[in-house]
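pls design
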């Protein structure tokens, strides 16, 4: 029951929806749809398909082991800004910026796309 002798709840212990935050739990911050759209545009520019990413910290996944150092190739970025990847262990788990710790592998070779189709050399 409420009384003046009982301390009020600490707002730092609750998320934006009023749900208690569990110790050690990682949760993405709640954002407005306009903010998410703008963030997703920036993430799409920085993580284009074919970009190589590396996990800095183990990802929690009950179905596949996702250890630190695991590399993946970006497939797409959705409207929420989640980075969908194909991982070297066969998983297709998406990265969530702000929750998952990862970096872009800058040692990858750039993919050169030719605008002209080249015909193969045929010998008769």
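designed seq:
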């Amino acid at each position: 029951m409420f009384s003046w002798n009982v301390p009020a709840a600490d707002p730092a212990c609750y998320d934006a929806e009023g749900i208690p935050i569990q110790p050690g739990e990682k949760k993405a911050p709640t954002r407005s749809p306009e903010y998410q759209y703008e963030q997703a545009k920036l993430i799409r520019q920085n993580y284009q398909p074919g970009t190589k990413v590396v996990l800095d910290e183990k990802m929690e996944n009950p179905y596949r082991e996702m250890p630190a150092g695991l590399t993946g190739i970006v497939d797409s970025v959705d409207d929420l800004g989640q980075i969908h990847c194909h991982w070297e262990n066969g998983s297709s788990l998406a990265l969530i910026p702000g929750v998952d710790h990862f970096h872009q592998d800058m040692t990858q070779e750039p993919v050169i796309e030719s605008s002209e189709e080249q015909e193969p050399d045929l010998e008769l």
